[in-house]
Amino acid sequence: MKFYNLLIKYRLQTGIFFLAIAIAANIFAGFWPSFLLYLIGAVLIAGHFFFGPLRMIQEYMENGDTEGAEKVLNSIHFPNLLYKPIRSVYFTLKGNLAMMKQDFDGAETNMKKGLDLGMPMKEAEGASLLQMGMLYMQKNNIRQAESYIRQALRKGLPDKENQAAAYLQLCSIMMTKREFRAAKDFFRKAKALKATTPQIIDQIKQIEKYISRVPG
User: Is the dihedral of CA 73, 114, 156, 188 positive or negative?
Assistant: First the structure.
């Protein structure tokens, strides 16, 4: 795994090195002896621009190293050359990192680009739509937040933690709109999922203290 990440990190430089060796071999021994070196160099360089180093981000994200993940993203200077599904992931990750830094405008711009390009899996699209809903909640745009969260649930979310988070957000939105019956219904759905994330468990406990006293 470490060797693979190292290869990805220096793929461009390695590709240029192979091309340089290929040119030298071509000059002194002819084209055919250098053909394989040309091919390896071309594949490595094409891989650098078409696939990028996004594979390296996984380890940083798993370790909570957002600074390391951001450095990898910033090393991509020509994102429009990335293969379309990878380009979508690139913009989505940029949006997530911007959200963590509370750069809501930057998060909105990048996450919309990711969604417009299309997600490789429906669950991933659902998760991105949920993130957009959370973003609009932060911006106090309740109408847009509700629209995105409902879309997220229709597309499908990857696990019960995300589903519970979506229902809790809709519960909050319905409370704001004073649609108390709907709020209680979304709360019941969230609670029934038995999520294990501490933040969601805490939200459920907080809402449970007062939701039984609201009308509807």
Answer: positive
DSSP 144-205: HHHHHHHHHHHH--SSHHHHHHHHHHHHHHHHHTT-HHHHHHHHHHHHHT----HHHHHHHH
Q: How far apart are alpha carbons 84 and 43 in whole angstroms?
A: 18
pLDDT by position in tens, the chain (length 216) = 577 778 888 999 999 999 999 999 999 999 999 999 999 999 999 999 999 998 888 778 778 888 999 999 999 999 999 999 999 999 999 998 999 889 999 999 999 999 999 876 767 889 999 999 999 999 999 999 999 999 999 999 989 999 999 999 999 999 999 999 999 999 999 999 999 999 999 999 999 888 888 776
